[in-house]
Amino acid sequence: MLNIVLFGPPGSGKGTQAEKLIEKYNLIHLSTGDLLRSEVAAQTDLGMQAKAIMDKGELVSDEIVTKMVEKKLIEHKSAPGFIFDGFPRTVEQARELRNTLVDHRTKVTMVISLSVEREELMKRLVKRGEETGRSDDNEETISNRIDVYGRQTIPVTYYYDKTHIHHPVDGIGKVDEIFKRIVDVVEKNK
Question: How far is it, in rounded angstroms, from Cα 117 to Cα 59?
């Protein structure tokens, strides 16, 4: 099973690259944001637990998110692999993911993080905001989102550095150039 954790700060092109990886390797896209919305919309037990927490403005617990991830693993147990997007966001979630995957006789194959300088991220996201009208793509919000990524998610890459499966990839260039760099990493490490 090919299980890829894809990291990248807001504006790094992570979503675009995830879609290309899904298509090339026939992976199941596992986005915790999508999972939460789906479980809430379906009014499952997990979804209702998550909704009650989110309605208070709080973060859904690692335990609930991990259970949603596990449910998706069970639903797609014959898949060739998964691409994890937005999960894990904390070191505790990374540990939970490892344990959950071990329970399902698999593991994280590799962690790929897209590296893009802050100025470039700001430029990309401001431009996206102008083109799409997204209200969260303004300089103040963008700056905060990049800071949150640095505080919460960068430590997860250090966790994976210790297991020697973390591979930073230059996220600057044309989409296909970046994708080729990612594919080179995947092919060398799968």
Answer: 28
Structure tokens at 49: 């637990």
Q: What's the domain count of the chain?
A: 1
DSSP assignment, residue 13?
S
Exposure string for 61-90, b = 16+ CB within 10 A, e = fewer: ebebbbbbbbebbeeeeebebbbbbbbbbb
Task: Record the tokens describing residue 187, joined without a space.
Answer: 């092919």
- Which CATH number belongs to the domain containing residue 95 in this structure? 3.40.50.300
**pTM confidence score:** 0.86
Whether 115 contacts 17, CB under 8 Å: no
Per-residue pLDDT of the chain (190 residues; tens, 9 = 90+): 999 999 999 899 998 999 999 999 999 999 887 888 888 899 999 889 888 887 776 778 888 888 889 999 999 999 999 999 878 988 989 999 999 999 999 999 999 999 999 999 999 988 888 888 877 677 888 888 888 888 888 999 999 999 999 999 999 999 999 999 999 999 999 8
Residue 144: which domain range?
2-189
Catalytic residue list: 14, 89, 128, 134, 145
Give the C-alpha distances (Å, rounded to integers) separating 61 from 4, 10, 189.
23, 22, 32
First to last CA, the chain: 9
